[in-house]
Amino acid sequence: MDKKYLSTVHKIYPAARTTEHAIDGLLDVIERKLGLKAGQLMYADSICCDDVNIIQYPARAYEMLGPFKMGGLSGFPFAGISGMNAFANHVPEEGAVVIFYAPHIGISRAGKIGEIHRIGQSDNSACCGAAVGALTKLMNNEILMDDITVLDYQMNAIEQIFLRHKDRIKNAEHPILEATEVMYEAIEQRIDVLISKTHYPCKHIIIAGGIFINGDKDTESYCEYKRFEHRNLETGQTSDWMKDF
């Protein structure tokens, strides 16, 4: 673990841990609580399709079945109800569903928010590029209400999400951080709607949400969990597992 870089991340996201440790913690809690191992878990994620998220994806996550990819640009679950229903039909009968969602944000080794140094490039680049691009248009008053095109649907949808929270983002001390929080809330709201409209042929759903934090090419990725809960589909009971995590 790069302790110097971790201290930089912790100045912005105090509860962040490496994605490897985050996945270890998630799987350990599930096994302790439910007696289920990784191979019994059908896993979906809703994170940005940015290549850096694949490069920095935690290896242990692949011990679960999947991941089924719900997310498009900025992590919004553009796969929609059809995607969620398809994923639900893949769960083992004696297993459980795990759904993880997160927007991502870059933090360079120097502490620059919203950019990272990528492999093979001499200069930093935006991360999340879609969020930074939408934010730039918002700050320049270039987003029009309900302006959504077929050719750039996902980007336009993100722009509309930011436009609905224009004052909140523009008045923030760090607009890119606030925009990332707005994105997290939008993703969470949509994930909850999709879950409510889906039948899962199993007893357990585990839902985790957070902020996925990318570093420079020579650093690890990190994650700050904001939600970790269990739903028993037989009893209808929901339990908060954050304290166990």
Write up what this structure looks like:
It comes from Pedobacter nyackensis. InterPro entries: LCIB/C_CA. Residues 22-230 form the Limiting CO2-inducible protein B/C beta carbonyic anhydrase domain. This is Limiting CO2-inducible protein B/C beta carbonyic anhydrase domain-containing protein. By secondary structure, the chain is α/β, with parallel strands linked by helices. It has one domain. It is built from eight helices and ten strands. The chain has helices at residues 3-10, 19-34, 51-55, 80-88, 129-139, 153-164, 166-170, 175-196, and strands spanning 17-18, 41-46, 65-69, 96-101, 104-106, 115-116, 125-126, 204-214, 222-232, 238-240. Strands 1, 2, 3, 4, 5, 8, 9 and 10 form an eight-stranded mixed sheet that branches. A two-stranded antiparallel sheet has the order 6-7. β2, α3 (51-55) and β3 form a beta-alpha-beta unit. α5 packs across α6. The longest helix has 22 residues, at 175-196. It is globular, with a radius of gyration of 18 Å. The model has no long low-confidence stretch (mean pLDDT 96).
